[in-house]
Write a structure and sequence with these properties.
The structure is a homodimer.
Chain A (H helix, E strand, L loop, with lengths): L1 E5 L8 H14 L3 E3 L13 H14 L2 E5 L10 H12 L3 E6 L5 H9 L11 E2 L5 E2 L8 H9 L5 E2 L12 H19 L2
Chain lengths: 190, 190
């Protein structure tokens, strides 16, 4: 099974090394990891169009998207990763994910933005920025969380803050283990 | 042509009113607007699973996704909206978008996070959070920006900050006009 390894760690200086370590861990579970920076660029640095096309080709080649949905420069996941999760989900790929921030989106939102104190409604909890945050008990935006659930998986989430969330691969490996377990259960019909 | 109207304005208290105004503007250009909150829920408030399924059904019904990619509680677009853009793009929908924040992602990133002062590399501009920001001259993450370009469109972007970016529909209407123009040009073969 091939896994497209989505996540904002592509923005690290040592992104290729992280990709190499992720691919090694994948191999340990019998998976093939496809990392965005695996595409070989001969000569000049790639254009944004070339990176876009290469990433989409890797997702199409994959059987699943395993995404790092740790909040990125915000209280929520990286929108580039979210795009890739949506792209893969539409094509019938399994969506698996992990998140190095503990708790629910609503708790992060209230802590970062502040609640108005007005009562929650069907629209969610009113925040100080004039918009609501949804209150479904989910780790992030419902479109991301429900794509996982529709894939028969749960997000692998940290119990407490992770020191170096884009290099620490503990949760990544736990997500691999969950995927391998789910696959075995499917195969054995359990 | 049916347009799925994606964006974080669903989190406004008056989201339904914004949806109604957006649909009216769509009709003025000969389009049918499909707004996430249009789905009728009889009885109890919908679950996150029901909202997820309803939104995906509306995207599948649409010919295009017209997304509000204005930065949402961050320097970048809402990840729920980004998921929907990726989902629609994978299904061959046209992706159109507008952004009420001026300038490039890298300028917002440097202003919000700070540059390290180290020189830019192929990985982008090194920021104070230990990660880079891509430097492709784009308004947001390349996956979002290139999905638009692949649809033959450019983002409709504000020239300066917009006061009430999730209620002001000036850019939304400009995006409708661009879509209508693009459609005419396709039909007449220009």
């Amino acid at each position: 099974m091939k896994l497209y390894l989505a996540g904002p760690e592509v923005f690290l200086a040592d992104a290729r090394e992280i990709g190499r370590r992720k691919a090694e861990l994948c191999a340990g579970y019998g998976f093939t990891g496809l990392f965005p920076l695996d595409t070989e660029w001969h000569g000049a640095a790639p254009t944004s169009r070339a990176i876009f096309a290469a990433n989409l080709a890797l997702i199409r080649e994959a059987d699943a998207v395993l995404a790092n949905l740790t909040p990125f420069r915000s209280i929520s996941a990286d929108p580039g990763t979210a795009f890739e999760v949506g792209y893969g989900f539409a094509l019938g790929k399994i969506v698996a994910a992990y998140c190095a921030a503990p708790g629910e989106l609503k708790h992060r939102a209230v802590a970062a933005i502040g609640a108005t104190g007005a009562p929650a409604t069907d629209a969610g909890i009113p925040l100080a920025d004039g918009l609501h945050v949804e209150d479904f008990g989910l780790f992030d935006n419902l479109m991301l969380a429900e794509a996982l659930i529709a894939s028969g998986l749960q997000v692998v989430q940290a119990q407490q803050e992770v020191d170096d969330p884009f290099r620490d691969l503990t949760l990544f490996e736990a997500a691999l283990a969950a995927l391998a377990r789910g696959r075995r259960e499917t195969i054995t019909g359990r």
